[in-house]
């Protein structure tokens, strides 16, 4: 437990609040009402605790509200149309899960339903509701848990990843068949851009401070909520956080064991995901099954070098970096290593942030299968490795979520005393 060393003069008029760093566990004091354009870095690991530049709750509310409005046509209007043999096939985002289900790939269908329809709508709805209540000066008790759920959904709402996948599917199909993007694709692109802008306008630390102001820092043992960073007396361990409702724990329980088990399961599935075909698409008039790396080679051969690089990075390089990086971070805790702690902390943040982009390849398949159903020669479908690869992405994302990077810093201070 951290002893909060307070300078009695620095906080004499309550102008500072205590905030826990989610990367290293250090508890620092930052100004309660910081001016614009400042970034407060953790003095121990250099992670950004709070950014004040360009942030605005009003702008965040307007942008997330507009994104929610555009999301509806993006989900139901046609995305893409192909034509061949005098016929046409059209897809819509809400139809993708059903197509995957009928094609015998229910797990892929479920992943698309959750990541592209349910989670983006739920996250946008929650963020908009929370910000609208804050705007009306309302502070009901459910605001904290609602924003906690919205933050938990952030990596799993994958509209932006799907937009890149749609562009790749379009470019790939354009080499073989007549294809056009439809209004749903443009509405979805608008919603995606607005969601990114809303993320840039909102600093979670500011939203948390608006939901419930942090209490005065008190000397003595303290622990920081791992969700909202609120600092509470150490004796409150096990009780719910008064702001976000998460259970107050010094560190996540069983973090290394759970992260290691999920990483190992991901590593085991990574082998069949790369060895077996991921999808079938016609090349000329021949249905061709291809693996992840063969798909990259085909994109490069079709003159789409940039897209080949994107798919190679998302589907091959990122999962490798994630598996190796997670193994390094987990062994660092077990070994009580003191080396390169800042590098490992930054690597973990990157792993946690980029992991979702590996869903590009499964989404490319989801984008072209509904519009490639003509006859025994002109058809597209997902192959078994697509489900295995999706499982690798989900397992490694869950591993990063289960891990607690603060344990690496604990273990460096007192080896073998790290994991709770
Ligand atoms: Zn830190
Ligand atoms: Zn909390």
Any overview of this molecule?
- With 420 residues, the protein is α+β, with helices and mostly antiparallel strands.
- It has three domains: 2-54 and 214-236, no CATH class; 56-202, Up-down Bundle (Butyryl-CoA Dehydrogenase, subunit A, domain 3), CATH 1.20.140; 252-420, Butyryl-CoA Dehydrogenase, subunit A, domain 3, CATH 1.20.140.
- The chain is built from 14 helices and 13 strands.
- The strands form five sheets. Strands 1-9-10 form a three-stranded antiparallel sheet, with no helix packed on it.
- A hairpin with a 2-residue loop joins strand 11 (279-283) and strand 12.
- Helix 8 packs antiparallel against helix 10.
- Residues 225, 227-228, 230, 241, 243-244, 246 line the site of one zinc ion.
- One zinc ion (ZN) is lined by residues 225, 227-228, 230, 241, 243-244, 246.
Question: How do you describe this structure in short?
Answer:
The chain has 420 residues and is α+β, with helices and mostly antiparallel strands.
- The percent range for helix content is 40-55%
What's the total count of β strands? 13
CATH topology of the largest domain: Butyryl-CoA Dehydrogenase, subunit A, domain 3
Q: Regarding CATH, which class of the largest domain? A: Mainly Alpha
Biggest beta sheet attributes: 3 strands, antiparallel
- Termini separation comes to 12 Å
Level-2 CATH architecture of the largest domain: Up-down Bundle
Residues in β-strands, percent: 5-15%
Ligand kinds: zinc ion
